[in-house]
Specification:
By secondary structure, the protein is of the alpha+beta class. The protein has 28 helices and 17 strands.
């Protein structure tokens, strides 16, 4: 067997413990093993049937990589009952953790449950039995929630346009107005399940998208007439307060229940099932047939605050590069000039972020788009919705103290008097929208500008005829039979830094030019590190096989820095976050371990240097904030953006902005420190320790809330 051979080779000259660790690394992180098996399941089966598995000790069962390997085995298509029984008898808690980490709790029909239930009937293991009872309760609770939603959906039977209309009315009634929402990020909703606490507004968006994309599809193609009838019969009675009958009120009320139910499903999946599966510090148990959470002393999650600080940094950079944009002289200098200028600054900031952090200089998705226009279009639409819908709606409601629908009526009438569509569901023919926005295209004939804008609007739209989509975070519009629909409130709230990054790195992750982008990322990193006044070796190819390219090495008189660079998208679920840790960051740590050893044992001696005279520091640098400044298998993980800010000499930008209260003041300066200072600053977490306490002050600045995730 392959892994027996690997273990036996490793055990020569080392202990069983070291041989097991090395064999686990081959299983989990060595890509070449995949070519030796027909499937991942076969590879896992070979490992767990190896002879050395029969000699595992209780202590070895505590190894994190062993539990990860067992979790993958349990997640695979078939598991051996006798193997799992032996492991359970050796160490119940660790096998239970592996079952959790496999993620199969989210799938009650997974084939491994049949084997696990057989084991429970065959052997008397109290902790395992209690765990299965807890899982059964969690799965039953989840199924009851899903059944309740399906029943509501079947009773309500709304079509996609009606679902969009109800979503827009709901947003006006419950999401836009304070004090019902906190900082526009958290809210309370009607028919809210569970305890009376605020929930993230983003969960309402997810529910809207799920209901809209999975609603009934009209077989016949929509026309202006059919749409007009739906708007007249469904939206206008609420807006004008006329012809509002019991059937319509009941249908809207059922929609509210659907939203609450879908949010409850999503939160239960994320905060109970996925947290229990992947966050091994989260523990549930049953007490009097009720699910109880065992409290743990976790550090507060500062992801949102950190993301805000980074978003403001790129806005800051954007304001300082406005003169580089060809759009600057084209901006309308009227009443909307400030909003348009901010939209342009956000565009510039996102373009800088894409290039400097992700190595992205062009928008090539099979079809090529102008990157500036692609982003600027969305940010101008966002500004339009803010200043022509959201803010006027807030002002009317505040001044009149009226019900949201009465304020909405006034908003719509005022819009009509100005020739503007201020309905809460913005809709138009895509070709008409493209014509009206075509002057935002800087080059080409009139017809070519219209065609280009039509392509851009189509790019940012998800087609409702194509079925349910999970791309609501990236796609801002719905497309249906040549019509474009958008919810102004959702578009206004969207973080387009995140949306744009995820468009490139998640929706179109297999783009042909990804390799060239990775190369540019590594070159950008080398350019930054060159400011540390040391010798920089970028994309270094070791002389020994099996080590792999080293992304960056910096050598000074007494310090060595080795970096493994990774790029990914912004995660939106607990499962995505922990899968990234377990399968990408842990592999990066494995690679960095081998590369650091090579630098010490081979690279430095090849330069005529004595390794013992150097302090070697090895970092995982990646493009997300998950597990920021944590140690992954002994290696510090930091974000690329932190390095960008520090090595560009912008470390004080945040405090400078607060002191000057002037976003457009240029704080940019050269980096004047050395590698030793950089290492100390990063490993002491100085940047975040300085800037996170300032967050309470920045909350009152205009751009903070809209830039949050």
């Amino acid at each position: 067997m392959y892994f027996d051979e690997q273990f036996n080779a490793f055990v020569l000259g080392s202990s069983n413990d070291e041989a097991l660790l090395n064999t686990l690394e081959v299983l989990l992180f060595k890509s070449s093993t995949s070519s030796k098996f027909n499937s991942v399941s076969d590879k896992l089966d070979d490992f767990w049937r190896s002879n050395f598995i029969g000699n595992l000790t209780v202590e070895q069962m505590n190894n994190e990589n062993l539990i990860l390997a067992l979790s993958q085995y349990i997640r695979s298509k078939s598991i051996d009952k006798d193997i799992v029984i032996k492991l359970l008898e050796l160490n119940q808690p660790r096998v239970i953790k592996a079952i959790r980490q496999s993620g199969i709790i989210a799938n009650a029909d997974h084939c491994s449950w049949e084997v696990l239930r057989e084991i429970n009937n065959q052997v008397d293991l109290l902790e395992f039995k209690d765990f299965l009872l807890t899982v059964e309760y969690i799965q039953l609770q989840y199924q009851e929630r899903c059944n309740a939603y399906r029943e509501l959906k079947n009773q309500t039977q709304i079509d996609q346009v009606t679902a969009m209309i109800f979503s827009s009315l709901y947003a006006c009634e419950y999401l836009i107005l304070s004090p019902k929402s906190i900082d526009n990020l958290y809210t309370k909703i009607p028919y809210q399940y569970g305890v009376e606490e605020y929930i993230p507004v983003e969960n309402v968006w997810k529910a809207f998208n799920h209901i809209i994309t999975s609603a009934n599809i009209q077989k016949k193609e929509f026309t202006e007439k059919t749409l007009a009838l739906i708007f007249k019969g469904t939206m206008m009675p609420f807006v004008l307060g006329q012809n509002l009958n019991d059937k319509l009120i009941t249908s809207y009320d059922s929609f509210k229940r659907m939203v609450a139910c879908q949010i409850d499903i999503n939160l239960y999946r994320d905060q109970v099932i996925d947290s229990y599966c992947f966050d091994l510090e989260t523990n549930y148990y049953l007490e009097n047939n009720q699910l109880k959470l065992e409290s743990s002393s976790k550090e507060p999650d500062l992801f949102s605050d950190k993301l805000t600080i980074l978003s403001i940094y790129w806005l800051y950079r954007g304001f300082n590069s406005l003169e580089e944009s060809p759009y600057l002289i084209q901006l309308d200098k009227g009443v909307n000039f400030k909003a348009n200028l901010e939209a342009l600054a956000k565009t510039q900031g996102i373009i800088l972020q894409l290039e400097e952090v992700y190595g992205i200089k062009k928008a090539d998705f099979g079809e090529v788009y102008d990157l500036s226009t692609l982003i600027f279009t969305m940010l101008m639409i966002q500004a339009h919705f803010e200043y022509n819908f959201v803010q006027p709606f807030k002002d009317i409601t505040h001044n009149t103290k009226a019900h949201p629908f009465i304020a909405l009526e006034q908003l719509v009438i005022e819009g009509l008097s100005r020739g503007q569509d201020r309905l809460p569901l913005n809709h138009t023919k895509m070709k008409d929208k493209a014509i009206s926005m075509s002057n935002w295209i800087l080059e080409g004939s009139g017809n070519s500008k219209k065609r280009e804008m039509s392509r851009i609007l189509d790019f940012w739209s998800q087609d409702l005829r194509e079925g349910e989509s999970s791309s609501y975070g990236e796609k801002s519009f719905y497309k249906l039979d040549g019509y474009m629909f958008s919810l102004p409130w959702v578009t206004f709230q969207k973080n387009f830094n995140t949306a744009t990054i995820n468009t490139f790195r998640k929706l179109y992750k297999n783009r042909a030019n990804l390799k060239s982008e990775t190369d540019l990322m590594e070159q950008n990193l080398a350019g930054l590190l060159a400011k540390c006044k040391g010798r920089v070796y970028s994309q270094y190819e070791p002389s020994e096989s099996g080590v792999g390219e080293i992304d960056a090495i910096v050598v000074t008189d007494n310090k060595i820095l080795v970096i493994e660079l990774k790029s990914t998208y912004v995660k939106s679920s607990v499962k995505e976050i922990y899968d990234y840790r377990n399968f990408v960051l842990k592999k990066a740590a494995y690679q960095l371990s081998r590369k650091s050893s090579y630098v010490r044992d081979v690279f430095l001696p090849s330069l005529g240097l004595d390794s013992s005279q150097f302090s070697i520091h090895s970092w995982i640098v990646d493009t997300t904030l998950e597990f920021d400044h944590e140690y992954i298998d002994g290696f510090l993980k930091i974000s690329f953006e932190e390095l960008v800010i520090i090595l560009n000499g912008h470390g004080q930008y945040f405090s400078n902005m607060l002191d000057n209260d002037n976003t457009n003041k240029n704080p940019l300066s050269a980096y004047e420190e050395n590698l030793e200072a950089l290492i100390k600053s990063i490993e002491d977490n100085a940047f975040w320790n300085t800037n996170l306490p300032l967050m309470s002050s920045i909350q009152d600045l205009n751009n903070a809330s809209t830039l949050k995730a």
